[in-house]
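Supplementary Methods S3. Complex input for the zinc ion-bound model.
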Amino acid sequence: MITRRQLLKGFTIGTAGLMLSRVEGLNVFASEEHHGSGHILVSPDEAIARLKEGNARYVSMKRLSDPGVGPEARKPLTKGQWPYATILSCSDSRVPPELIFDEGLGKLFIVRVAGNIINPALLGSIEYASLHSTSRLIMVMGHESCGAVGAAVHAFEHPETKETPGIEDIINRLMPAVKKAHKKTGTKGKALVEAAAKENVRMVIAQISKESAPLAEMQKKGELKIIGAYYYLGSGKVEFWV
Ligand SMILES: [Zn+2]
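Predicted complex, serialized as structure tokens:
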């Protein structure tokens, strides 16, 4: 099997031209480290703390007057990107990560897909942010009243339902979580949607480290954390599963 070190040899981070192998030589566990390009490498725990603070500002409506979305923020980002966290979240219009974490440009590497499912292309996007860029935290975030999970629960309860191939693909990827949640909780309808959405987050986390050997290796070394989270539509609060 190819090791992470072998895989990374020869790759560069972003457009800054910084060899990732140099990052390996640094103490990435410190809360913040400047790496070769002068940009800050943020540890997994510091990334979690930043997301928690940002969500607290959002919930209390004490958002930053400028979280980094203006010309000054844009200018250095023309040279590359140095995100500190990857978020796999739902496409749902009520769950926009930059807003709910009160965060600016270039900070969050976001992969959005209905039902925050995983497939090879989505896994590749997640891998990119940690293997070829600076993200040391992967957060899989489900949410309350997820329509995609609702569709999967509907299909589970009414197997005769027909959808388009695209929607069916999403439903099929959510179905193992629906079945597992149903078996565990014996619930149906709305309660099953919530249980399945949470089960899906747990299953996707397990799938990421199972299907990506380099990410699993980083995780094992403590260089990367993969965590779950759950967003509540009414309160705006994110529950961090750490
Ligand atoms: Zn959703």
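Residues 90, 92, 115, 143, 146-148 surround zinc ion (CB under 6 Å). Residues 4-241 form a domain with the Beta-carbonic Anhydrase; Chain A fold (CATH 3.40.1050.10).
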